[in-house]
From TrEMBL:
It is a multi-pass membrane protein. Coiled coil: none annotated. The chain crosses the membrane at residues 20-37, 43-66, 78-97, 103-124. This is Proteolipid protein 2. It comes from the Eukaryota. Residues 12-130 form the MARVEL domain. It is found in: Membrane. It comes from Moschus moschiferus (Siberian musk deer). InterPro entries: Marvel (IPR008253), MARVEL-CKLF_proteins (IPR050578).
Amino acid sequence: MADFQRNSCTNFLCTQKGMLLFAEIILCLVILTLYGASTSGYISLSLIELILAIIFFIIYTCDLHTRIQFIHWPWTDFFRSLIAAIIYLITSIIVLVERGYRSRIVAGILGLIATALFGYDAFITCPMRQ
């Protein structure tokens, strides 16, 4: 049983969606740390997106999306990534315009990178495209 779960996790991590979710988790964690060092006003965005990315990573890794049928997972994941991309874009522009500490500027730039990452994730998971 443990080998099956390990292979399932390894198989999902090797997919494009698995690598995207893992990159989103790492990027949200770095941005959360940088926002925490410079300003506390934008911590909640990174924290919520980090938690949602971890939840979706667990759901896809454990194949719960095939067992829980009453939720349409592609649309849910699409809206999660699209909303994250829009909100990261807005907060990154605000942080970069305000200027301030170097950690704040780096967090703004990484927020723009997160916008591109979440936008790409929304693009590949769009159910209308499939």
